[in-house]
Amino acid sequence: MTVLVRPGGEVDFWAVARIWVNSWQIGYAGIVPQPVLDALDPADRHRGLLTRAADPADDTELLVATQDGTVVGFAVIGAWRGADGRCAADGAGEVRAIYVAPEQWGRGVGATLMAGAVQRLDALALAPQRLWVLEANDRGRRFYESVGWCFDGQRQEYVTGGATLPELRYVRRQTPQAHQSPRADVSVRPAGAADAAEIAGIQLSTWRTAYARVLPARILDTLTVDEVTAQWAAAVTRPPSPRHRVLVALEREWTVGFSALGPVDDGDGAGEPSALLATLLVEPRWGRRGHGSRLLAATVELLRQDGYTNAVTWLLEQDRICRSFFQSAGWELDGAARTLDMDGRLVTEVRLHTSLATPD
Q1: How many Cα neighbours within 13 Å face the side chain of 86?
Q2: Is the peptide bond preceding residue 128 cis, with omega within 30 degrees of 0?
Q3: Which helix (H) or strand (E) holds 150?
Q4: d(CA 302, CA 27)
Q5: What digits encode the pLDDT tens for the residues 286-295?
Q6: Of 96, 139, 248, 306, whose CB has the highest number of CB atoms within 10 Å?
Q7: What is the pTM of this model?
């Protein structure tokens, strides 16, 4: 099965917490004191992840590895921390944690996850790249060495449960590619079935971050990755018509945003033939990098190629950020509005439109 690596979010925290606890209890048996391992609780770890996510000073990024939409591993990356635990000023990067569900050990998940972590650190221009590993963790050390890391001679001590455990510092062997420009390749392409899980993750992460004060909590809480993934898989593989499309925006191999478009519903158009841009979202952590503008431009160009002369989109009235984004790209409010009943809460949407005529 294909392993995909993507940015993680709150929707992944329970899976991450369970993998972390299971990996520690199995992988560190006989290394970390058993009472420490026995006391590990996924609920405690989940609360810790929520606390860290809410801390504006936290500079780490969570990556998750998935198979068929299921999280099977995760990594945490960030700037290298010095001896005092603060980020060092030498521009180095760190793989602060990387764990794979024990039932997936030896199946290549870890190598794919590490490759994704390294590529992200490269994109952030964080080099050289380092990590700490327990000296007694033979399995972990063999893995790191197999994917291009080596011991650089530095040691420190890790204290837990009354035991002092030696740690070794590993550094990634640098290649010429690691010194190239940190500017990552960006692109937009049609979505495929394999993109459905990433699209679902982006939608849930964005809704729960940007619309938490607008949409009813029950709606946000009851949405599941599996359900939303199935809906997007159907939209991609069984669209209502050949003119219904889904596009994804990429930074290198990362899926960072998507748009969905097609013919306008009866009564929604501002002239014919009209297109409906049903949604355009960029995952919040990938914002301010130009992905939204590139995705919107690619969407408009595809609509022109499909023969549309104008397009409309509906936005939440309270979403001033999205409205400003569209208006800066030449879209205008046309005076239309509609009210949606979302679990007993009335939510107003306003319509914007734009001409698809090619500028002279």
Answers
A1: 2
A2: yes
A3: strand 149-160
A4: 50
A5: 877 888 998 9
A6: 248
A7: 0.51
